[in-house]
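Homework-ish question, so no full write-ups if that breaks the rules, but can someone show me the predicted structure for this set?
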Amino acid sequence: MYAQLVKSEGSKSREDMTPEEIAFQDRIDRNEKIEPKEWMPEGYRKTLIRQIGQHAHSEIVGQLPEGNWITRAPTLERKAILLAKVQDEAGHGLYLYCAAETLGVSRDELLEKLHSGNMKYSSIFNYPTLTWADMGAVGWLVDGAAIMNQVPLQRTSYGPYSRAMIRICKEESFHQRQGYDIMMKMCAGTPEQKAMAQDALNRFWYPALMMFGPSDKDSVHSAQSMAWKIKMNTNDELRQKFVDQTVPQAEYLGLTIPDPDLKWNEEKGGYDFSEPDWTEFFAVIAGNGPCNAERLGARVKAWEDGAWFRDGLMAHAAKADERARAARHAAE
Amino acid sequence: MSSEWPLWEIFIRGQHGLNHRHVGSLHAPDAEMAIRNARDVYTRRNEGVSIWVVKANDITASSPSEKGPLFDPSNSKVYRHPTFFDIPDEVGHM
Ligand SMILES: [Fe+2]
Ligand SMILES: [Fe+2]
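A: Not a homework solution, just the prediction itself:
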């Protein structure tokens, strides 16, 4: 999931709620959508800004690991496909920034918070993409995990967020399929190519499991977010679903999930599997993953290097406005 | 200098002769760039045949707190719906 550790406001019991808060919760319970200018508790607004902002940042930073391979894609067709996929992620970031902005935060504020490290993006994008097979593993596993999280969020209570998620979900299955298609090609190739695919799975498996956030027993902010329907499932529920869906796909490829304890549990109707290393997860979130500095550095550089261009276009627009006003004036 | 690009609301007419529909918003320095950006952000998969862009600041919206006084008056006017009238079967389709 692209928003892994969103701090939510403490949950309130019904007796402690104001009449406005009760009416608000009732609307959510009736599955009514909350729209931008309507009354909402301050905590709902703040939590959503954090969550949607973190989600948007993840889409944008998430372009970097794949952008790394655009110039080195093995064929022109693969290159065009990867380019389209990465362009979609830019679009996802933009839909989500706009949704966050309806809550009264500006785009520049959001970017400033990303650049200063005050807002996070998903831990997954702090891992390097070392070989072409990683493009397969990212599409298959990373977009696969994102879909798991985003599909239920289409029903989230905040209208603009829900609509952004609906658009995003329409575009995501192309992402996952193009990744799996790369994996199928690699696995049907030479032993070396298949070994590359296995190596990519080995490196991305646990980071992908981390995308759903910490285990439910350590996930302190879930209750209020679930009551507000800005979180629809618990972290462990989604992680389990992801594993159950992915294991047969790995089997089809003839690849081995890097978990000796993975086994089907008939009783629960799902796989038992090993937890990722949560110490590593918290280290990556805190900024100490393999690529944190590089990713954030690339974002900050792009923002700073583009400043003269953004300003130039604004100056041009102001001048054109001025000229149009003068022309109207002369005609009167 | 750095000032944020203004926000534009984007409306797109889909393929099938429908009205322009609000699809979202984006930032752009001027209307021309807003249309170019809207093409890339909102019509990557043939979603449209025409784009309108409107500066978000130029939109006047009804206020959520006036929802009652604005819309309630039409609730009682059930005769505006054809099902209000009983037309005998012999009359045929009407
Ligand atoms: Fe995305
Ligand atoms: Fe994606």
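Now go work out the reasoning yourself. Hint: Residues A 89, 143, 146, 172, 175 surround fe (ii) ion (ligand 2) (CB under 6 Å).
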